[in-house]
Design brief:
mainly alpha; single chain; 434 Repressor (Amino-terminal Domain); 73% helix
Length: 157
């Protein structure tokens, strides 16, 4: 996985005609870190994946999409298919899902692998009880609103 990812980072940088110094500056890391990623001796931290994908995508959308696919290559057991449709999601949807997972991992301080596994588990449970994604979203929003109202009433006391 690390060598494949390193090669994808190198290819994306080469496609965008950036030097290691230029790309490192754009994403806010040291050149040595980028060199380690490209050689497969290290991998970016979750917070750096997002910056890397955005920097490449800003210069070349296709190179950004390729890098996104490399970043999201499954390192755990693939998720079960949840939709009845056999059509793959549009490339932008796949990219947005992967970026969202990386953003959540940054926010929660968890690895993207753990966030992805948690989301797979959540979606599996939603499907197993027969809820649509819209209905599950509404239930979560209702619970958040109720918890917020409860917090406000406790503060007011």
């Amino acid at each position: 996985m690390e060598r494949a990812l390193g090669k994808a980072i190198f290819e994306a940088r080469r496609t965008t005609r950036l030097t290691q110094e230029e790309l490192a500056t754009r994403i806010g890391v040291r050149v040595q870190a980028l060199s380690l990623w490209e050689s497969g001796r290290s991998v970016p931290r979750d917070r750096n994946y997002r910056a890397l994908i955005r920097a490449i995508s800003a210069l070349d959308a296709e190179a950004g999409a390729e890098l996104t696919r490399a970043v999201s290559a499954p390192s755990i057991t693939p998720a079960p298919v949840l939709a009845a449709s056999s059509a793959p999601p549009p490339p932008d949807a796949d990219r947005e899902l992967n970026l969202t997972i990386l953003e959540l991992s940054d926010t929660w301080g968890l690895s993207s692998r753990i966030v992805r596994a948690g989301l797979v588990q959540l979606l599996g449970r939603v499907q197993s009880v027969g809820l649509s994604l819209e209905a599950a979203k509404q239930k979560l929003e209702d619970r958040m609103a109720a918890a917020e109202a409860d917090t406000r009433s406790k503060v007011a006391e």
